[in-house]
Amino acid sequence: MATHSGRLEGKVALITGAGSGIGLAAVHKFLAEGAKVVGVDVKFTPAAEVLRSNPSVLLVTGDVSQEDQVREHCFLAVEKFGKLDIACLNAGIMHGVQSWLEMDVSLLDRVYNVNVRGPWLGIKHSVAAMLASPSKGKDCAIVLTSSVASLHSEPEFSPYNASKWAIRGLGNTAAQEFGKHGIRVNTIQPGVTKTQMYAVGDPALRAFVEGKNVLKRAAEPGEIANVMAFLASDEASYVTGSTVAVHAGQTCT
């Protein structure tokens, strides 16, 4: 069972992809650790909707690929809770296995709009909101969600693989560019995780994917959220520009 240290007490966080899966687990974890949260997603599951009655949470329907909306979400944290300390840019989409030669470029555009343009815009406007906060960025943190797919690639999965490699580049660049303000930027690489998409997948495929890691199982979303919370907290005050593997040793196999 996860322990709660209050390590995010007094912090205000923006979490994208907050409607389900890892993002929703992050909302619960950040709240448990004392943060106030603005959660963004294109839609919210019933499990997320119950949080609307919590005064420490503001759930907003929005599209992370639309700049005007991203700007609004980031500054909504400042308007609602007085500041923005943390941006957990987690929203992302996947696609089915498909031959490169048979794939329409529209799929690449759709994946990149969410998985690359989304965090690029999220960094741009969350940093602006952090600099407009009383801290002027000092002790603020950004956490990006990449994937184990950014360590190795699978055939017939080119848009997703490329997008997750790109997120690593965004994180490393942002860490260098905004460190002067005291803003830390780190990227996590989750492995297979028990999200909704995972639950409805083919059981044989699930077993095959789980067999690739050392622990021979999928992660619970909360296990990924625990690492997000650490990187967002002051306990990780000397961690920036890092890419943190959270995939049960998959690259060891």
TrEMBL record:
Pfam families: adh_short_C2. It comes from the Eukaryota. Keywords: NADP. This is 3-oxoacyl-reductase. It comes from Gloeophyllum trabeum (strain ATCC 11539 / FP-39264 / Madison 617).
